[in-house]
């Protein structure tokens, strides 16, 4: 029943590295809420796993920051009434967090200057707008 979690094209977390815990959730569910363990906690040892190279582990540790407790990332899902849907939600949330944490940083922006033509067009437009506004004013003498 418990399956591997696909994070992206290159990374799939095997089910053997995942730790699942189930407990009773609060909220809607009628009489079944008192007997069904529908709340899901999904944990994965990010820093202890051999799946990620050292560079990606450092990047994940830096980006996940205070979400990691001794290198372990824990996701809790209790928004659905069924345990299966909460499992799917927790797995999807874990995959999204890990994908964002190990993603390459965005490229640095290279500073550029506006072209001479762009500067001239901007100034000409400012002067035109000023003339329009000047024309709206009445001569007060």
Explain what this protein looks like in three dimensions.
The protein contains three helices and six strands; from the N terminus they run ββββαββαα. With 141 residues, the chain is of the alpha+beta class. The chain is 37% helix and 18% strand. Helix 1 (54-64) packs across helix 2. The strands form two sheets. It has a four-stranded antiparallel β-sheet with strand order 3-4-6-5.
Which outline best applies?
A: elongated
Cα end-to-end separation: 88 Å
DSSP strand count: 6
What is the structural class?
A: alpha+beta
Provide the spatial order of strands within the biggest beta sheet. Answer: 3-4-6-5
Taking all Cα atoms into account, the compactness measure Rg is: 27 Å
Strand content: 15-25%
Uncertain segments of ≥5 residues (pLDDT<50)? none
- The number of helices is 3
Oligomer: single chain
Order of helices and strands: EEEEHEEHH
* Overall pLDDT score: 87
Question: Helix amount, in percent?
Answer: 25-40%
| Main sheet properties | 4 strands, antiparallel
């Amino acid at each position: 029943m418990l399956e591997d979690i696909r994070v992206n094209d290159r990374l799939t977390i095997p089910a053997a590295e995942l730790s699942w815990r189930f407990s009773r959730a609060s909220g809607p569910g009628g009489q079944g809420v008192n007997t069904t363990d529908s709340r899901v906690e999904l944990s994965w040892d990010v820093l202890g796993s051999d799946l990620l190279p050292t560079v990606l582990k450092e990047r994940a540790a830096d980006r996940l920051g205070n979400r990691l407790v001794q290198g372990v990332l824990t996701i809790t899902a209790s928004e659905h009434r069924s345990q299966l849907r909460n499992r799917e939600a927790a797995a999807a949330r874990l995959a999204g967090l890990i994908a964002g944490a190990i993603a390459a940083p965005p490229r640095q922006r290279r500073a550029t200057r506006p072209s001479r033509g762009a500067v001239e067009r901007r100034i000409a437009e400012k002067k035109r707008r000023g003339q329009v506004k000047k024309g709206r004013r009445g001569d007060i003498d």
